Amino acid sequence: MNTIIPNLVIPDNQGKPVMGNEKGILEVQNLSAWYGKTLAVKNINMSIRSQTIMSIIGPSGCGKSTFIRCLNRMHEVAHGGRVEGCIMLDGKDIYARDTDPVVIRRRIGMVFQKPTSFPTMSIFDNVAAGLKLTRFWSHKMELEEVVERSLRRAALWDEVKDKLNQSGTSLSGGQQQRLCIARAIAIEPEIILLDEPCSALDPSSTLKIEDLMRSLVEQYTIVIVTHNMQQAARVSDMAAFFLMDHDRSGILVEYGPTSQLFTNPKDKRTEDYITGRFG
Amino acid sequence: MNRGYLRRKWVNRAMLGLSSIAAGLAILILALILGYTIIHGFSFLNLNFLTQAAKPVGEVGGGMRNEIFGTLILVGLGSIIALPIGLLAGIFLSEYASPRVASVVRFMADVLAGVPSIVVGVFVYAIVVQPMHSYSALSAGVALAMIMIPVVARTAEESLRLVPNSMREAALALGITRWRAVIGVIIPGALTGIITGVMLAVARIAGETAPLIFTALGSQFGVQGLLKPIGALPLQIFRYAMSPYKSEQQQAWAGAFLLVILVLGISILVRWISNRKRI
Amino acid sequence: MPAITRFGFSFFTSSSWDPVKEAFGALPAIYGTLLSSAIGLLIAVPISLGAAIFLVELAPKWLKGTASFVIEMLAAIPSVIIGLWGLFVLVPVVRSPIENWLGTHLGSLPFFQGPPFGVGFLAAGIILAIMIIPIITAVSRDAMRAVPNEQREAMFALGATRWEMIRQSVLPYCRSGIVGAIILGLGRALGETMAVTMVIGNSYKLTASLFSPGSTIASTIASQFGEASAGVSVGSLVELALILFGVTLLVNVIARALVWRMTSVKAAKE
Q1: Contact call for residues A192 and A153 (beta carbons, < 8 A)
Q2: The sheet that has A238-244: what strands, in order across it?
Q3: How close does chain A come to B82, measured CA to CA in Å?
């Protein structure tokens, strides 16, 4: 399932295989999220295991994006965003009162739907942004190392190594999205969240990013929201199916290994969605 | 019915013709004022004007050198006071304020912007000149700053608002603290708008006269320091225009030429910059 | 704290000045302000509205941007320069052709009596008109631009001429925005100092004639300041400034409320 990319720096920590009943590094417990008074997701419980790719699927409007934003405390940035419940990262609740969201976001990175390279920065500075903007001063050589390593891991190095000083906007959409991935990797998170990363891209860029994810999972845990079922089937180890409940809030209907969810779903609603009866 | 239609057609033509004339009239007035000032003023402009201090009537030569310096000093002083306050206010309004606080602050800024400049001058007279028992460049700087602040704050806020929210999210998702995200990513994204706003504010106060009557007063002795009265270009134009001596009136025209070129030059430059950025 | 200082002055004035004289004192200035602003509005509003209609409904695309920019440039010219031009270019024209003509033909009206000085209320009114045309035009233009195109198309579909469409569909729709624009212009005119001071003649009397010199609140403050050395007369000038502040504040708040209402009504309708 993993593609070998040349020049890839193999990390020391080899990925653990997916096994049943193994404790995940991200435990979601009774999570509910609001926008002001509107309940967006209701009572989500799941375990996300390390070094796996988990996809979140479901029809639009059922809280997938809201949920994934709760995982790195981005939901509360939105106006009126509020969360109840807890999410345990390595046994500690990321929503604990004394936990700084900034720290959480360094450990759980995010790539958005629309490739947002910072237009006023060069490619180099884009990738280094996570480092440069959190420190007073950085050693130039250290930055260069990190930028090259991140761009290699994001499978973008060869395409941009000669134009690191140019603006990020000169890249194509797919390249920009890989740039955003490199930027997210540069700060060495443990988990990478991707919110519909390919929906604004053409099919060949999409495939490149899917390949990228399979190589990244050796070192990171990946959660991806996608409305494309085929993508979920191609890429992910585990899948979570979300649906809108009667009160218009999103709920988790079924969660399990991708192959099982797609070939032998336990819940009828999952089966209906998979077979295209709705959504 | 036919006659009614003809009448309507003629009314239509007449009213539309009138409105075109109105627009033409507005443009014509501008051309008249501008043209006359530039041509007439230029004819009295000479090297003496730029390099010499004012001389008593009857003596040949004499110029507005001190007043030109005075304007530069006052604009600089006003900017030093106004830019930090205005920019911080704009940043606060756009990035940090809750909607209710923001609308209150915005309202106050609009109110301050609507105050006639002479009232500002009298106000600063009461709170700075009187306690200091002296007219001063400093007090004039304060008055000009009070006029600048609302303009700078509002244009800064609007420029910052134009930065797409996806940029803010992408920056925060990197685990950067709020204020570093603002400084490192958002402000650079709005820089053009902020700079043009500042330039427009500078052009505005360069031509302001009324507040200077109560604060700078004008000086026969040239620039004496920030705590003493100081002359300025618009102030001198005013005094010379009202004087009965033809030589002084001519100098008023020359001064007007300089001032118009300065102010219009900045306005055109601003327009050119924003057009370029848009394309 | 500034308010306390200001009210301190006001207290100071009312105890040492003859209250009757003070009331009389302020009146010519207030009258002058109102009169000159009224003339200014009278001249400016038709021109501004006409120009705004032209810019929004009639101008071809290539003209729209440049013409708008040109009119905005008029707003950027410092008022002391407009005053200078007014004093040396406009006033002679007002004196010779205009006031002469008005005096001989309409001299029976009290407005147009008296020797044609040139400087005076009429000139001040014209100058004020020149200064407020840009702001009224700009805000009206924005109000008219906010009218959705469907409204215009509906009128055309009924067979209206372009002017009828403007008059019956566009203008009523953005009525409060245009009124707001006019009031903003009024606010600007009330506070305008330098240009007015230079062309109004600075005489402190109450007269009905437009030809005679006069004063506005702003011009009084500006021109009397040089001579007011004692604390008392300065205090009364400060009080005049307070009056001006209060009036412009009120006018601006009303104007903004109107413009804001227009935009929020439009948003609510969508």
Answers
A1: no
A2: A92-93, A81-89, A26-35, A38-48, A250-257, A238-244, A53-57, A221-225, A191-195, A108-111
A3: 26
Q: What is the token pair recorded at A184?
A: 């997210």
Show the domain range for B16.
2-43
* pLDDT score at B2: 66
- Same structural domain, B24 and B97: no
| Cα–Cα distances in angstroms (integers) from residue B228 to residues B74, B77, B140, C234, in the given order | 12, 14, 10, 20
Is A12 a member of any domain? no
Domain assignment present for residue A11? The answer is: no
Residue A91 contacts B where some CB pair is shorter than 8 Å:
no
pLDDT tens per residue across span C44-91: 999 999 999 988 888 888 888 888 888 888 888 899 999 999 888 888
Q: C249 and B207 in contact by Cβ < 8 A?
A: no
| Domain coverage including residue A161 | 26-274
Tokens 């930065």 belong to which residue?
B163
Closest CA to C156 of C168, C144, C172: C168
A1 inside domain: no
Looking at the structure, do residues B168 and B250 belong to the same domain, yes or no?
yes
How many domains would you assign to chain A? 1
List the chains bordering chain B where 3 or more Cβ pairs fall under 8 Å.
Answer: A, C
For testing the chain C interface, which of B1, B6, B16 should be mutated: the one with the most C CBs within 10 Å?
B16
Q: Which residues of C touch B204 (CB under 8 A)?
A: 76
Contact B173/A180, CB-based, under 8 Å?
no
Report ipTM for this prediction. Answer: 0.85
- Domains of chain C with bracketed CATH: 26-265 (1.10.3720.10)
pLDDT for B54: 67
CATH code: domain of residue B258? 1.10.3720.10
pLDDT at A84 over 50: yes
Pairwise CB contact (< 8 Å): B175 & A110 = no
Ranges of chain B whose pLDDT falls below 50: 279
Across residues C164-187, what is the average pLDDT?
87
